[in-house]
Amino acid sequence: MLKDVVVNLSSGGERDSAADFAISIAQSFKAHLAGIAFAYEPVIPATIMGGIPTEIIESQRDESMKWAQGATGAFERAANTAGISHESRIVDASLAGAADLFAQISRRFDISVVGQAERKSVSPTDLIIEGALFESGRPVIVVPFIQKTELKLDKVVIAWDGSRQAARAIADSMPFLERAKQVEILIVRGERGKAYQTRGAVMSQHLARHGLNVSVNQITSPTADPQSTILSHIADTGTDFLVMGGYGHSRLREFILGGVTRSMLGSMTIPVMMSH
Questions:
Q1: Residues 26, 122 within the same domain
Q2: Model's pTM, two decimal places?
Q3: CA-based Rg of the chain, rounded to a whole angstrom?
Q4: 3-state SS string over the chain?
Q5: How many CB atoms are located within 10 Å of the residue 51 CB?
Q6: 133 and 228 housed in the same domain
Q7: How do residues 196-251 score in pLDDT, each as one tens digit?
Q8: Claim to verify: residue 47 and residue 135 sit in the same structural domain
Q9: Cβ neighbours, 10 Å, residue 69
Q10: 135 shares a domain with 88
Q11: What is the pLDDT of residue 48?
């Protein structure tokens, strides 16, 4: 059961899809929700250190703080309207340090929620997602920036490949799976189709023992791109929520996402829950 949820307040626009989705999770589970906004330190290139007037640096710092205050203010209003237990915090951080800080904060919660990074620009959200995934020890839900609906669990798809990360994701997602009307184990087959089939059948039996309505679907990717195959399938089947293992590793604070994970986060159309 989820009782504590944390969300990174990541949008400076009129609406924050991650915050809205996190609020709907808190409503559904009657959980407490914490909203975290980062006030980023100004980025000053080392080559011009000392060449930027102090007033410009302070202006950038003030602008970042005003953005964070606006984000927490919008969050507070939305959370109050929803009638949920909540709190908000503004955290001072550098662009590089925010990921580590959010990971540390997330360890004290059941799950974290982060918005998808905008692909049109370099965003600290990329690092925050990776920090939450690799360093928090907790699952993370990444919400598409186009997301407009609240938490919906009519159909949940599990991307299953028999890996440790996928098994961890299933265990972490049980509060959501137990509320789902339909759970599908999706296997994208390659050359190891028979082995995948056996693992899928065994996992479906495991989930059925938890009282879940589970089906197993094996599909063959027409290309060497399983991410596109998964995205096409969830679009064709009206999937609401995707569960998958988050692949990659962390090396001395350098977060490195695996290819499928990075591609999925860049092209996702529904909320994706990942565990590592």
A1: yes
A2: 0.88
A3: 20
A4: CCCEEEEECCCCCCCCHHHHHHHHHHHHHCCEEEEEEEEECCCCCHHHCCCCCHHHHHHHHHHHHHHHHHHHHHHHHHHHHHCCCEEEEEEEECCCHHHHHHHHHHCCCCEEEEECCCCCCCCHHHHHHHHHHHHCCCCEEEECCCCCCCCCCCEEEEECCCCHHHHHHHHHCHHHHCCCCEEEEEEEECCCHHHHHHHHHHHHHHHHCCCCCEEEEEEECCCCCHHHHHHHHHHHHCCCEEEEECCEEEECCEEEECHHHHHHHHHCCCCEEEEC
A5: 8
A6: no
A7: 555 788 899 999 999 999 999 999 877 667 788 888 999 999 999 999 998 755 54
A8: yes
A9: 14
A10: yes
A11: 57
Q: Locate 92 and state its tokens.
A: 């001072």
Q: What is the pLDDT of residue 77?
A: 95
Biggest alpha carbon–alpha carbon distance for the chain: 66
Q: Are 261 and 247 in contact (CB under 8 A)?
A: yes
